[in-house]
Amino acid sequence: MALVLVVDDEPDVRLLARVVLRAAGHDVVECADGSKALALIQAHPRPDVVILDIRMPGLTGWEVIDRLPPGSPPVLVVTADAGALDHGLEMLLAKPYRPEELMAAIDAVLAAGSTEP
Q: What is the 3-state secondary structure (H, E, C) of the chain?
């Protein structure tokens, strides 16, 4: 299965994602801030997909997206910010989400095989 990086400052959100993704057979790496996320995105092994919250202290999700190097893994943005829809993101999951919504979104991101956020 896939290696998924979950980036969210809310421990409960990371826990839910970890439990759901591991139950589906995925490996999960987690972090709570954008700076750490950028380091993990470039680490080895590189994640296959990134689940990225937008509103975080320090580097926001938008800032992480802006700093992603070419060839970065696809990004699934998760946010409670309805304004994110105005940014034209195709891979967006609104919080709060149900486990089956998360899995459907991850499956779509992995199937698309995109390298652009």
A: CCEEEEECCCHHHHHHHHHHHHHCCCEEEEECCHHHHHHHHCCCCCCCEEEEECCCCCCCHHHHHHHCCCCCCCEEEEECCHHHHHHCCCCEEECCCCHHHHHHHHHHHHHHCCCCC
